[in-house]
# Entry
Amino acid sequence: MPSNPVTLQVQKGAGAFWCFSNASYLQRVTLEISASNENPYVFEGSGEGQLMTCDRSGGPTLPFTEPADFTVTATFEYSETVDPPQFKMAHILKEPVVDRTTSRYIAQVESEDSTDEDDNDSWLQVVSWARGASAGHAG
# Structure
């Protein structure tokens, strides 16, 4: 079983992080980014199929532009209570899915907060395109 926190090696370029909640419990994903002096970045949210909110951007995405590859450490937590939240470490039951080419990088990590093992209580997604690469599809 993969560990929590999860470490990703993100490809340089322009891109974004975002997180989804698929759970009634409050979900939190904390990102520590090696290329940033403003750590950590925290996404929180709850509900089925809901985008989580990033504390720094105030919205559902955290955009970035990086001239070199960088490391992200993501910690996945959940709280069964809201007021006040008491966060516990979530489980990472599947290896991160990473799709990397010379021009793009896509990664997804999913967490589990209880015993139903649906592996989707919170999702972190990262997308990065190398400068000058197209984000669209030819065809």
Summary: The two ends are 39 Å apart (CA to CA). The CA atoms of residues 7 and 56 lie 21 Å apart.
